[in-house]
Amino acid sequence: MNDDILAHYMQAGAIANKILHRAAGMVREGVLIAEVVETAENAIIEEGAGIAFPLNISLNEAAAHDTARYEDDRTFAAGDLVKVDLGVHVEGYIADTALTVDLGTNDLLVDASRAALDRAIAMVRPGVTVGEIGAAIQEEIESRGYRPVANLTGHGLGRFLLHEKPTIPNIGIQGGPEIEEGMVFAIEPFATTGSGYVSESPRVEIFQQTSMKPVRLPAAKKVLTAIRSKNGLPFAKRMLPQNKVDLALSTLRRQQILHAYPVLHDVPGSLVSQAEHTLIVTEDSCVVTTA
Questions:
Q1: Cα(15)–Cα(48) distance, rounded to whole angstroms?
Q2: What is the mean pLDDT of residues 204-222?
Q3: Sheet with strand 50-59: strands edge to edge
Q4: Set 41, 61, 66, 85: catalytic member
Q5: Using an 8 Å Cβ cutoff, are 162 and 119 in contact?
Q6: What stretches of 65-143 adopt beta strand conformation (E)?
Q7: What is d(CA 53, CA 96) in angstroms, rounded to the nearest whole number?
Q8: Which of 27, 91, 129, 274 is deepest in the core (most CB within 10 A)?
């Protein structure tokens, strides 16, 4: 971690914080989801940064990986619990941050994930295990009468790498890796009124290139050309040439060139809240880049 890299992380974090709150402020009854997504993603570019992943807007029981569709006409409704999850990179160095907007009466559920995040951050220093952090997150959420989502975790961040070690659980586990100085990771507690486990929806809007192989289908070639500038970071289906896009994506998935991120959700009728910050571990604590 030299000074230039640190500066890139801090710049990405400042931009992410600014735009996340701008996007969250747009979440109101009757507003198009696509309008919030377009505004936030355009703002990232206008700031001179890059989109680390498509803006996630996940409603109610959906916890993650939802975003605007092509020509999406969905609007926010009264009572919605809206997760806004945003990623920014500067020269590949990523800031990942999220908050929950409540269009109903779910203050305690929103507070559960936010308080869990605050407590987890306060614990971060070299020598603490990820299991200890997970236990603290679980305790904060359960003390408010909710469940942590056990199969979603925080994650390490690298250059153009959105998910790497360490994994930060949202439940207590025995031991686990120790936090080390210089690590960069996102902590993201999820609290739910549901089962505490998410499953995959049939709907997929977000993909990521994971390998490079020759392809013959012209539509698939167009997709690979369109995502070249992503440097392996996730992208949305709506960002692609729409002619034969489903066939192209299916072909690229079958050839294991693309990885799909289905929308993840708890049981129907449940509600999920999320809070997230990116931080850098220092000699005796951490710096939160997205605060």
A1: 9
A2: 96
A3: 50-59, 81-90, 93-102
A4: 85
A5: no
A6: 81-90, 93-102
A7: 9
A8: 274
Q: Is 66 a catalytic residue?
A: no
- Where in the chain are the domains? 3-198+267-288, 201-263
Average pLDDT (152-160) is 97
Q: Tokens 């289905």 sit at which residue?
A: 262
Starting at the edge strand that comes first in sequence, how are the strands of the sheet with 286-288 ordered? 161-168, 154-158, 184-187, 277-281, 286-288
Do the domains 201-263 and 3-198+267-288 match in fold? no
Report the alpha-carbon distance of residue 218 to residue 249 in Å, rounded. Answer: 12
For the whole prediction, is pTM greater than 0.85?
Answer: yes
- Compute the distance between CA of residue 235 and CA of residue 69 in angstroms, rounded to an integer: 12
Rounded CA-CA distance 169/66 in Å is 21
Class of domain 201-263: mainly alpha
276 is known as an active-site residue = yes
How wide is the angle at C-alpha 151 spanned by C-alphas 232 and 82, nearest 5°? 75
| Fold annotation for 3-198+267-288 | Creatine Amidinohydrolase (3.90.230)
- Of the listed 8, 89, 155, 277, which one is catalytic? 155
277 counts as catalytic: no
Active-site residue, selected from the candidate residues 188, 265, 266, 277: 188
CB-based contact 207:275 (threshold 8 Å): no
Nearest to 88 by CA among 265, 215, 276, 287: 276
Any catalytic annotation for residue 188? yes
pLDDT digits (tens, 9 = 90+) for 271-289: 999 999 999 999 999 999 9
SS3 50: strand
- The Cα-based distances of 62 to 51, 228, 262 in angstroms read 22, 29, 11
Give the residue among 74, 96, 77 at the shortest CA–CA distance from 87.
96
